[in-house]
Amino acid sequence: MYKKCCVVIPVYNDIPTENENLSIIITIAKLSRFDLFIVAPNDLDIKYYQEHYDCNVLRMDARVWRSKDRNKFPNYNRMMMSVGFYRKFDDYQYMLICQPDCLILKDGIELESLCDMEYDYVGGGILLQRRITSCPQNMAL
């Protein structure tokens, strides 16, 4: 049986900026009814996250996450489109990915209601190299 939804916060720096810190604190406070995961590359020092936030920290292979230039993340988009990333969350029917530059304004009841709508995807458009000629039935953009 699946758990309903988890919240994933990808992080990129050993210590978050002031705005990222605020975003993470608010996300955890507003969505504490869900399982929360901070996701970081395995070469990132995660001590700050473990000491300051009450949520799970999941490590990902840094080679998948980063390019050779440690400060650039072109591989991050590829990771977010990979089946392997989502398999780490197989126990969940839905996932909310909260980038550390977003601000959650509503509590978890709103997220539960959105999950009950049973959409496969809710978010911005995805740029593909080929033209999309139809939209899957359960997709909201």
Characterize the structure shown.
- With 141 residues, the protein is an alpha/beta fold.
- It is built from six helices and six strands; from the N terminus they run βαβαβαααβαββ.
- The strands form two sheets. The chain has a four-stranded parallel sheet. A two-stranded parallel ribbon has the order 5-6.
- Strand 1 (3-10), helix 1 (18-30) and strand 2 (35-41) form a beta-alpha-beta unit.
- The longest helix has 13 residues, at 18-30.
- It is globular, with a radius of gyration of 16 Å.
- The chain starts with a strand and ends with a strand.
- 20% of the residues are buried.
Please give the order of strands in the largest beta sheet. 3-2-1-4
Please give the share of residues in helix. 25-40%
State the helix count: 6
Total E-strand runs: 6
Which terms summarize this structure?
141 residues, alpha/beta, four-stranded parallel sheet, two-stranded parallel ribbon, 6 helices
Provide a short characterization of the protein structure.
With 141 residues, the protein is α/β, with parallel strands linked by helices. The chain contains six helices and six strands.
Strand and helix layout:
Layout: E1 3-10, H1 18-30, E2 35-41, H2 47-52, E3 56-60, H3 62-65, H4 74-80, H5 83-87, E4 92-97, H6 108-116, E5 121-122, E6 139-140
Parallel strand pairs: 1-2, 1-4, 2-3, 5-6
